[in-house]
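Marked as duplicate of an earlier ticket. Keeping the data here for the record.
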Amino acid sequence: AINGPGLCGIPVTHRGVADQVLVVSGANRNGDLPTVPEYVSTRTLVILMAVKRLPDIFQLLSNASYPDSLPLAIVERAGCPDQRTVRATLGSIVDTVERVGHNAPGLIVAGNAVNVLSDAAIQDRFLDSSVAGLHSG
């Protein structure tokens, strides 16, 4: 939950940007969605095992006042040779993943820390070429 994003250049906390991290499972007992608190701009939310439920997760976060402009990343197969990070915003992530596909397993990272490191420094190293230009700058 912490190492996966870090391997993709996403710190879950960063001074002046994110001072807290919340990790939840997207596959709760009985198939229920996780309970997430209201949006806090300095919190990074990491959701495990939830990419297949992305439209439901989008609605869950929207209902909790997470803004559509919030940076969001999907970290797929962290630490594996075929690791991939798909970056978008909360408002565009469902369409982005429909366009580029998804390779399980993956986790969702939502928060301002997603793009805190220089996009120029991570673009060539971590961004899958199929989503080039989708990161915020």
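See parent ticket for discussion. Residues 77 and 136 are 22 Å apart (CA to CA).
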